[in-house]
Design a protein that fits this description.
With about 600 residues, the protein is of the alpha+beta class. Among the domains are: about 140 residues, Neutral Protease Domain 2 (Neutral Protease, domain 2), CATH 1.10.390; about 140 residues, Serine Threonine Protein Phosphatase 5, Tetratricopeptide repeat. The strands form 5 sheets. The chain has a 7-stranded mixed beta sheet with strand order 5-4-8-2-1-11-13, with no helix packed on it. Helix 11 packs across helix 12 and helix 14 runs parallel beside helix 16. The longest helix has 22 residues. The radius of gyration is 24 Å and the shape is globular. The N and C termini lie far apart (about 55 Å). It comes from Hymenobacter amundsenii. One of its GO terms (cellular component) is cytoplasm. It is found in: Cytoplasm. Its main location: cytoplasm.
């Protein structure tokens, strides 16, 4: 076991964990849907380095109402002085708490505000049921909007929680979870493995649970649960495949929670309870690579965590590579090759969009002074994966797999920054293979723009057949005569992406008549189809576009659609009308980007 790294200076946190750090949280909250607030207290057990004489604990908060701070626990603690630093619209404020030299715990009594950015409060009509719903999204630095904490991924802690909710609703957390309602609405949770604040999670709604195996299962609203059970039937084989690749699953249970469609991401890897979007419920298990991705985070991200958000690629690059290895194990290499090709296309598009010389195309980012969500691009995901794919190409899979498995084992429940990873990579792999470091050209990947020239080619035999079908259609073969019967969702997305720019409305009508794109229930297909309809001003898709944007909050889908609207002569006014109707259904993670793009609608 290696010595844990000291948390580095984090540009996105006011905390000073090298002086005093948090190690265990006891959280007591009451969930109030009427006022859309959480209220209660957080008791932090503290840890100090040997010889520390620090007299101040610094926590991160943003838009929290701090009512009192006590030295000790919530029952016997005594009041102490605290001050709030200047407010910053991204970082929030520093909560500075006066300590005595012998202080081992502090309690903060507080409440959230209705506009807390991490909290999405949904009315019953915004759900699949008849009850309201609450979910959190703490990544990257939004935990501080519902919990006073050291909101840095380099700080880990265990936690326990007591949560009071309305009696007909079920609360869940990134912890041990209930599987049935309690009549008094009081629930207790424990997370015995240390996690960073961004993995704190809470959801409350009309939820039911069904087991898939002794350690896996699905939570969802009753109307959604049967479809979810069918879609995720291979969850246990996924976990087994992941363990076979890179070592034991260390979090006890692996359950999924299917959220309402306003969830801004495809998934969120909250330990023990992955949050997933209902947009992956395609009916044919064709979009479950997203679940493989969130599962892979149980190793890369949750187990070994990026020390700061400048090191985000260490979470996501490993996870994308791991995800595709899981999918290859379950469905074969040709299937995984399709995922790699789709990711590669997304990477090329992102590099072109950001700019081939931009420092934002480096793996190691410099996000100081910016919202770390600006680093949540395909660079961290796909360029990070591409680096590992290049390493696999140079050293071979067996050697790379041994390295990755040992990396997760040696650094379990610790953080990792880019410099430390580079050192570890040299010591454990590159130095063992003469000439490998020169061939890899690591500095070009980490601190260079774009895609280095030593990246191996990416190809998919199944996509080659799709590309041939596109060419056949362009040469005059009617769409309804193309051989598409065995295509997966990925092949349909590839087909739509490969269509030439500037298709006329009549051409789209032919494709629509043959394949029913506008009426598709598959969100990935719709998200690829609707930009084409916007560009061609294809009237039959107008209602589908309105429905999609006002129902779905997944940022990956909606942001490109609004950008597509802006390319039209009347696009800004049209986009603003749609956004005004859709914005109440979106999480703050999405609205923060769209407000800047479109201007916030008038209240």
């Amino acid at each position: 076991m290696t010595t844990p790294l000291l948390p580095p200076t984090d540009p996105h946190s006011h905390a000073r964990p090298a002086e005093v750090s948090v190690r265990h949280l006891a959280l007591d909250l009451r969930v109030d849907f009427t006022t859309q607030t959480l209220a209660g207290h957080a008791t932090w057990q503290l840890s100090r380095p040997a010889g520390s004489t620090a007299t101040e604990l610094v926590l991160d908060i943003r838009d929290l109402m701090v009512e009192a701070v006590l030295l000790g626990d919530s029952t016997a603690g005594e009041p102490t002085e605290f001050t709030l630093g200047d407010a910053d619209h991204v970082l929030g404020q520093a909560l500075r708490i006066r300590l005595r030299p012998d202080t081992t715990a502090v309690t903060i009594r507080y409440r959230t505000t209705p506009g807390a950015a991490a909290l999405q409060w949904l009315r019953p009509e915004q759900t699949a049921g008849t009850q309201p719903f609450l979910f959190t999204q703490s990544q990257a630095i939004l935990a501080r909007t519902w919990l006073p904490c050291q909101d840095s991924p380099g700080v880990r802690f265990t936690y326990e929680a007591r949560v009071q909710v309305p009696a007909d609703l079920l609360p869940l957390m990134s912890a041990s979870n209930p599987q049935q309602l309690r009549s008094d609405g009081r629930y207790e949770f424990r997370m015995d493995q240390p996690i960073p604040a961004y993995l704190m999670a809470l959801a409350v709604g009309e939820l039911e649970f069904r087991a898939l195996s002794p350690r896996t299962g699905v939570y969802a609203e009753p109307a959604t649960l049967p479809k979810a059970m069918a879609e995720f039937g291979e969850l246990e084989p996924m976990v087994a495949a992941a363990e076979d690749l890179y070592g034991p699953y260390r979090w006890e249970r692996y359950d999924l929670l299917v959220l309402p469609p306003s969830f801004p991401f495809g998934g969120m890897e909250n330990p023990r309870l992955t949050f997933v979007t209902p947009t992956i419920l395609a009916g044919d298990r064709s979009l479950t690579s997203l679940v493989a991705h969130e599962l892979a985070h149980s190793w890369s991200g949750n187990l070994v965590t990026n020390a700061t958000w400048n090191d985000f690629w260490l979470n996501e690059g490993f996870t994308v590579y791991f995800e595709r290895r899981i999918m290859e194990r379950l469905y074969g290499r040709p299937y995984a090759d399709m995922l790699q090709a789709l990711g590669h296309a997304a990477l090329l598009h992102t590099v072109q969009e950001i700019g081939t010389a931009s420092p934002d195309t480096h793996l190691r980012l410099n996000l100081a002074g910016r919202d770390p969500d600006e680093g949540l691009t395909e660079i961290a995901y796909e360029k990070g994966d591409y680096l590992l794919l290049t390493l696999e190409h140079l050293v071979g899979r067996p050697a790379l797999d041994t390295f990755i498995k040992e990396y997760f084992a040696r650094h379990a429940f610790q953080s990792m920054d880019t410099d430390s990873f580079i050192t570890y990579l040299h010591e454990q792999l590159l130095n063992e293979h003469p000439g490998l470091a020169a061939k890899l050209r690591l500095a070009e990947w980490i601190d260079g723009p774009g895609i280095p020239g030593n990246a191996p080619p990416v190809a998919s035999a199944r996509f080659a057949a799709v590309d041939a079908a596109v060419a056949t259609w362009q040469q005059g073969t009617p769409a309804n005569q193309l051989n598409t019967a065995a295509w997966s969702s990925h092949e349909w997305v590839r087909f739509l992406h490969q269509l030439p720019a500037g298709l006329a409305s009549g051409q789209l009508a032919e494709l629509d008549a043959a394949f029913g794109f506008t009426q598709s229930g598959n969100a990935e297909i719709l998200a690829a189809w609707l930009p084409l309809t916007i560009a061609a001003d294809y009237a039959p898709a107008e209602a589908a576009l309105h429905d999609f944007l006002t129902r779905v909050g997944r940022r990956k889908f909606i942001l490109p659609l609004y950008k597509a609207l802006l390319t039209r002569p009347d696009g800004l006014a049209r986009a603003r009308r749609l956004y005004a109707a859709a914005r109440p259904n979106y999480h703050a993670v999405a609205t923060s980007t769209l407000d800047a793009l479109l201007g916030r609608p008038a209240e």
